[in-house]
Every structure is written in C-alpha cells, then in structure tokens.
Specification:
The complex is a heterodimer of chains A (346) and B (363). Chain A contains eleven helices and 19 strands. Chain A is an alpha+beta fold. The longest helix of chain B has 44 residues, at 126-169. In chain B, strand 6 and strand 7 (323-324) form a beta hairpin. Classes of the chains: A alpha+beta (346), B alpha+beta (363).
C-alpha cells in the first residue's frame, strides 16, 4: 500500500552501475545522468560523510588530503565497498528525483554475466538500501545487445562484446537468451594500469590514473600505426629517479605497445567465445559479425584488430557508451515484454 | 596495384561491374550510397578489396552503395557496416552514419522484440473460467446460507419450547412413559400373581397398584380397581392404596414393590449444613462421590436401592418431600448404608434411631 503510494511519487530508473561511469535512465525521459562512479568521503568528528559524488568527486581522485577519501566503490564490475556504493546509488536516486522525499522507485540494475550470486545480491541489496521499492537485475551483455538494437529475440545468433571499465563481456545471444557468455576482468581500468606501468618502466615517470585515462582516450590505439610513431602527447608526472615533477612526450606507438596486453586478453576472450559457439550460431555470425559496445569499443583501431584476429565483420555500435543503459532502459520501458531478461535474487 | 588487378581478375565480372559509377544521375549526390561509391572510385579502390579487408560481405557493401537498406541484416549491423566502410574510405564515420539514418527512416525505429513464449495449455480463456468460478462460488454460498438459515430457525423454535416444558418437567414421570410401560404391565401382573403366593398377605396389595402405576394420578387409581377385580386378590390392602400411597409406605416397610410406588412422588434431598463428603451408590454402582459445600442441595435420583455414605453425618440434612428427617449422626461421624428411600427414611425417623452404625451394610 505504502509502496504503491511512494511508487506514484517516484520515477522508475534503469542504472548502468559501471566500474568507471554510472548512467541513469529514467522511464519516459531517457538518459538523465552520466557521472563517474566515484564517491568522496570526508571524516567529520570521526564520522564519515559523503562530500561529493560523481564528476566533483572524480576531480578529487588522487588529490585528497588526509581527512578526505575519494573512493571508487566498484571494482571489476562488482561492488567492492558496499556502504559507499549504497551512498552513491542513494545520491543518484535523490538527484534524479530533485531531492524529493518519499521517492521509492523501481530500479533495474545491470550486473556482469560472470558475477557470482553473492556479488549480485550485494548489488541488489545496496540498491534496496538506497531506497528502491523493487530491484531487478539484468545481465550486462543482454542489456548491451538490446541497447545496440540487435535482434536478440530472433532465432539467429548475435555476438556482442561489451568492453566496460572493469570487465569485458563477450556473449552470444539467440531467442531472447544468452547462449554463451564469458566475462573477463579486463577493461578500461586495466588499460590505464598498463599505460602507467609502461611509462614507469620505460620513462621512470609515475603518472596518475587520471592522466593515464587521458592518454588512452586521446592517443590510445589497439595496434601501432603503419608508418612512423603516430600522434604524440605531453604528459606530466613524478620522476622516479630524482622525485621531481617532470614532463615527457609519449607517442601513439608507445601507447599501442603498452596496451598490447589488455587488447590481447580481449581478443583471446572473443576467440574462446567463438570456439564455444554452436555451429549454427557461428554460421550466423559469419554474415553479421560482432558488435562492440562499451567505452573500450572507442579505443582506436580495436575493431580493426578484432576483425583481423577473428576474420569476422566487427562493427562498433551506435553510441557505444550508452548501449548498456539504453538496453536496461528499454527493459524498464517494456518490462512486461522483456520480463524474461529480468531477474531478482529473491 | 598489381595485387588489386589480380584480385579483380579472380573476382570475375562482378568486380568489374562495380568499378563503373553506379548512377551518375543520382537525385541526391549527397546520398550516402552514391557518396561512398564515388569516394571509393576516386580513391581507386575495388569493392571486393574493401569487402575482404573489412570482412563485410560483398553483397552488403553493394546494398549500401545502392541504398537498399532492406537487404542489410539489421539496423545495428547496417550502421556498423556503413561506419566501418566510411572510415575505411577516410570519411567521417559519425557524419555518414547520421546521414544514413536520415535517409532510412526505418532505421530509427527500435528493433521490435518478440519473445518466444510457450502457447497456453488449454483453449479455454481464463476470463471465462474466472466467471464460472465466481458463479459457482456464489451458488455454493447461497446453498450454504439457506441451509444455515434453516438451522437457525429450528434453533429458535427450540428456544421457545423450554418455557412450557419447564413447567411440565416439574412432574417427574414423563407422560410418554405411560404408553411405553403399559405393554409392560402385562408381564408384571404375572410377577404380582406370584408374589402373593409366597410372601405375607400384606404384600400383595402393592403389586396391584404397581400394575396401575403407569397412571400416576388418582384418576389412574380409579381405573386401577378394574383390573384388580378380575384378579380377585386379597381386598384388604387394595382400598387404602389408591387413597394415599404414603400411608401404605408407612404401613409396610416392605421391599422393592412399595418403593416403586413411592418413587413417583417422593423427593429426597440432601442438604449440606456444613461441608460434607457424600457418596451415593446403587448397589455396586457408584453414582456420586463429592464434597457438598455448605448450603448445597443434592436431589437424590428417583431410583431403587440407593444408599448413602457420608463422612460428616451431622452436616447432612435429609429431607423427604421437604420434611426434614432427624440428623443421621453427630458432626464428623462416618455413616454408611443409609437407604435413600422415602419409606425407610420415614420409619427410621419414627424410630428416631439415627443410623449410627459404622459398619451396618444395607440388607
């Protein structure tokens, strides 16, 4: 009774709770929020309080004094810090409802296909604790495929590769279900880490996560350029030899070299998935190929590398960053029709 | 260049076909298909070559160049192919995709999802079933209500009756027993006939009224003589009996027969003047064992051969038809075998000898 009443007062939401970014889709409105999954906590009189969430908190990442902590509550696509994640979801729910009280929306959250029951339960419980009236879960590859507009309900195979911040999901879908899914804990974060490690090894320079992410977005490349060193970029960090701040120039070729390991891991995951695909579905894939979604799909030449590695047509989805949340939002809008893809842990 | 020539040869006539500009007279030179084709021609690339590099089917690329969206596998793939092709030719992928979407209105509508669902088990629509269930439920309820209502009326009737019955119940012998006993009367006379033979002459008169006993009133007594007459039995005792059975009982301390007589009228009550334990037996059968609280009254059932045992003779007041009998004993005395029969109690009262015997068993 009370739930129904508060349901009237709230907007149902679809949340793509990503390792790097959280996107929120509100029923009837579309995507209303796209912010980094970062929470800044301040210690006031021995009690931790939320200082900032999202963009504001991300700017604090790596620049905090002793009494402030900037935390990313999700790691590898799942919740690493339960309470902080709850605070973050609470913040997003409130933000969407313009800080209105009594908001108890129905929430659909997507989870990696490789997540365990415990991890899924953690996500569901934190969303419930954040004030959701009812929580449904949807598997990320399914959401990505729906969001990309793949004909997932038809009796034909479709393959989607969703490269997120924490995980890469490779899945073959047919008849409205996941035929085969593989989740590897390689994603944007690992690429950033690879860049940091490469620069430290080769230039004795320590750069922060934020700088590494910028390098990846600007001159990141899945394979070295055909001629020369490609684009270049100035980066700043701390010299490990004498401990002073330093600026160096890094080339596209070097970044491609740095990213070789995570890219290879993604290619391997796709190859393994293809090996496990039934022949009929594999035949469908020859014609239509693979669709790339997620932020990782924007890595320059990744489609080219995958195309050569698999021999299949590889296309990048329209608006790859929003595919998952759009698919989750579609499940919210058509929850009656798409109820088969929604699950709950109770 | 040499390679591409070889490839062209290997591809056969189709590749040659696509080297010609598709439609120079195209209505909109801005259209994505012709634009892509023109760019490709300008760059001198072969479509087969592009197909092999991008791993996109040659047919699909031809469809894109000809603007046949319906021949492409699906919206998501079509956009991906167009983007890949445009970027391969060095064009701005996003812009080409935007134009491609504008051209093909059908591409904007989202993919329809029709989940395969199992067919419903039976052909009967659930709404009809629901209606039938509701109607049946109402019928069952109606039936139950009417039955329950009838019950209630019967109960009401019963409640009214007791008021009248209560008055009738005051008279111990139920009128119904009269017809029931009358047939029994016949065997009884036989016994009665026997009794006069053996015992004293005084006894016989009682059996005769016993015969008549079914009719409990004086009217019955009037009738009684009639059966007596044919029997022609000792006349002495007969007249007094109809008059007053009490007197007869007083006269004859006789055994069972007279008691049956008095049974109908005498009411023996035990009243506790102080807390007293009593036990009432009918031979071996135990009728009652309890502690009578001060002021409690126990009405002795109308039965033969009942005896009383009490642990507090002084605390029990025996009354016959409301006449108090002398106390059975002193306070705290145990008394056994007090016969609960009006006649015997009266004799005892006359003798004024309380039955103090602790061990005297009745006959």
């Amino acid at each position: 009774m009370f739930a129904r009443l508060t349901g009237w007062l709230s907007n149902d939401m679809a949340i793509d709770l990503g390792t790097a970014n959280t996107l929120v889709y509100v029923k009837g409105k579309g995507i209303v929020l796209n912010e980094p999954s970062v929470v800044a906590l301040a210690e006031v009189k021995g009690r931790k309080q939320v200082l900032a969430v999202g963009n504001e908190a991300k700017q604090m990442l790596g620049r905090t004094p002793g009494n402030i902590q900037a935390i990313r509550p999700l790691r590898d696509g799942v919740i690493a810090d339960f309470e902080v994640a709850e605070e973050m979801i609470k913040h997003f729910i409130r933000k969407v409802h313009n800080r209105r009280s009594f908001a108890a929306p129905l929430v659909i959250v997507c989870v990696p296909s490789g997540s365990t029951a415990v991890e899924r339960r953690a996500i569901q419980e934190s969303a419930e604790a954040a004030g959701a009236r009812k929580v449904f879960l949807i598997e990320e590859p399914m959401a990505a495929a729906i969001g990309a507009g793949l004909p997932v309900t038809e009796p034909t195979g479709s393959m989607v590769v969703d490269i997120g911040g924490g995980t890469t999901e490779v899945a073959v879908l047919s008849l409205g279900g996941i035929v085969y899914a593989r989740s590897v804990r390689v994603g944007g974060d690992m690429m950033d880490e690879a860049i940091i490690n490469y620069i430290r090894r080769n230039h004795n320079l320590l750069v922060g996560e934020g700088s590494a992410e910028r390098i990846k977005k600007e001159i990141g490349c899945a394979c070295p350029p055909e001629h020369g060193d490609g684009k270049t970029m100035m980066i700043k960090g701390r010299d490990l030899m004498n401990g002073v701040p330093k600026e160096i120039v890094i080339t596209q070729r070097q970044v491609a070299e740095a990213l070789a390991e995570p890219v290879t891991a993604i290619i391997d995951a796709v190859k393994v998935a293809l090996e496990h695909t039934a022949p009929e579905l594999a035949a469908d894939l020859v014609d239509k190929g693979i669709i790339l979604t997620g932020g990782g799909a924007l890595l320059y030449n990744l489609d080219f590398v995958l195309r050569h590695a698999t021999g299949l047509p590889v296309s990048i989805a329209d608006d790859p960053l929003s595919c998952v949340v759009l698919g989750t939002g579609r499940a919210l809008e058509e929850s009656k029709k798409l109820r088969n893809v929604l699950t709950t842990m109770y | 260049m040499k390679e591409t020539l070889e490839q062209k040869l290997a591809m056969g006539p189709m590749s040659g076909l696509r080297t010609a500009a598709p439609a120079a007279d195209a209505p909109g030179a801005n259209d994505v298909g012709p634009l892509l084709c023109a760019t490709r021609m300008r760059l001198g690339k072969d479509l087969q070559d592009v197909a092999r590099l991008l791993h996109i089917r040659y047919n699909y690329l031809v469809a894109i160049e000809d603007g046949r969206f319906e021949d492409l596998p699906g919206q998501a793939y079509a956009i991906g192919f167009v983007r890949a092709y445009a970027e391969h030719l060095g064009l701005d992928g996003d812009e080409i995709v935007r134009r491609f979407k504008d051209e093909n209105a059908g591409i904007k509508k989202p993919t329809a999802f029709n989940y395969p669902l199992p067919a419903p088990d039976s052909g009967v629509p659930s709404v009809v079933l629901l209606m039938i269930a509701v109607v049946m439920g109402m019928m069952v309820y109606g039936a139950w209500y009417s039955i329950a209502g009838a019950d209630r009326r019967a109960a009401d009737l019963i409640q009214e009756i007791p008021v009248r019955l209560a008055a009738m119940l005051d008279r111990p012998p139920a009128p119904q027993t009269v017809p029931a006993e009358t047939p029994v009367v016949n065997p009884e006379p036989v016994k009665v006939v026997e009794t006069p033979l053996a015992p004293v002459a005084a006894d016989p008169p009682k059996p005769e009224p016993a015969k008549v006993e079914p009719a409990r009133t004086e009217v019955a007594a009037v009738e009684a003589p009639k059966p007596e007459v044919p029997k022609s039995e000792p006349p002495k005792a007969e007249p007094p009996k109809p008059e007053a059975s009490t007197q007869v009982a007083a006269l004859t301390p006789a055994p069972p027969a007279p008691r049956q007589n008095s049974k109908s009228t005498d009411v023996i009550e035990l009243k506790a003047t102080s807390d007293s334990w009593i036990q009432v037996r009918a031979g071996d059968q135990l009728l009652l064992t309890r502690l009578l609280r001060k002021g409690e009254v126990y009405r002795v059932p109308d039965r033969n051969g009942l005896t009383l045992m009490t642990g507090n003779a002084g605390g029990i007041e025996v009354s016959v038809n409301g006449d108090a009998m002398p106390p059975l004993g002193s306070e705290g005395t145990v008394v056994r075998g007090v016969p609960l029969e009006a006649a015997r109690l009266r004799t005892m009262a006359k003798a004024a000898v309380p039955v103090e015997t602790d061990d005297s068993e009745p006959d």
